[in-house]
Amino acid sequence: MQVAVSEARPQAGQVFGRAASAAIASENQLKTILNPLPSSHFKTTPRSSQSPSPPTLSIYSSQTRTHIPHSPPPPAFPRTQIDDSIMAPREENVYMAKLAEQAERYEEMVEYMEKVSASLPEKEEMTVEERNLLSVAYKNVIGARRASWRIISSIEQKEESRGNEDHVNTIKEYRSKIETELSKICDGILKLLDDRLIPSAAVEIQKCSISR
Predict the structure, then answer these.
(1) What is the CB-side half-sphere exposure of residue 61 using CA atoms within 13 A?
(2) What span, in angstroms and rounded, lies between the C-alpha atoms of 37 and 41?
(3) Side-chain-facing half-sphere of 53: CA atoms under 13 Å
(4) If you average pLDDT over residues 155-162, what whole number do you get?
(5) Which of 6, 50, 117, 154 is most deeply packed, by most CB within 10 A?
(6) Where is the signal peptide (predicted)?
(7) Closest CA to 187 of 128, 141, 150, 148
(8) How many whole angstroms separate alpha carbon 95 and alpha carbon 78?
(9) pLDDT tens-digit profile of 104-156?
(10) Residues 6 or more apart from 98 whose CB is under 8 A from it?
(11) Looking at 1-5, 147-151, 175-179, which range is the least confident one?
């Protein structure tokens, strides 16, 4: 019995020593895991006190640029030498008549040229440009109504051939309206010629030109 106990003691000591060594090793591993890494292990870059500005974008590229065409400027008309900053009424009406011609608003063109004629001093003639503008204005105003009269007259003949009396009467009334407008315009230009343009024309050639 004593021999068995004495033999068991060394074996127990060996087992205890191994367990203690294992416990120490486990404790060292645990410390290694739990201990944080030194601060020198991490590399930090200092932050600037000012935030970086966002990149700016340029509308125009150095490689491709888009060219947007601009509308051409209006035609330049000569001004009077007396006052270059403010147009005189006569010059302003001539300018407006040119604008009305470009816009194909010939009724307004007639009105502006009548104002030009009314603004002429006594025995002062129209310039060649003003006479041409007046001629163009009345020619287009009368020409448009003459074309309308021809179209309406043609339709009237067709309706008469078909026997549509109601339509024929309506067309005659409409044609009469166009004829009244034509007569009024012709009376206006004749009155303008007799009262203003022909008496102020000093040269016979100009009188013939105006009368035509």
Answers:
(1) 4
(2) 7
(3) 3
(4) 94
(5) 117
(6) none
(7) 141
(8) 9
(9) 999 999 999 999 988 888 778 888 999 999 999 999 999 999 999 999 999 99
(10) 75, 77, 133
(11) 1-5
Cβ neighbours of 201 (radius 10 Å): 20
Alpha carbon separation from 84 to 81, 91, 97, 130 (Å, rounded): 6, 11, 19, 20
Spell out the domain ranges in the chain: 89-211
Percent of the chain's residues with pLDDT above 70: 53
Q: Which two tokens stand for residue 142?
A: 């009368």
Are the C-beta atoms of residues 210 and 170 closer than 8 Å to each other? no
When pLDDT is cut at 50, 70 and 90, the band that residue 2 belongs to is: very low
Superfamily of domain 89-211: 14-3-3 domain (1.20.190.20)
Tokens for 112? 């502006």
State residue 88's pLDDT score.
78
* 159 closest CA partner among 173, 171, 146, 147: 171
Cβ-Cβ contacts under 8 Å for 130 (sequence gap 6 or more): 94, 113, 116
- Phi, then psi, of 96 in degrees rounded to 5: -65, -35
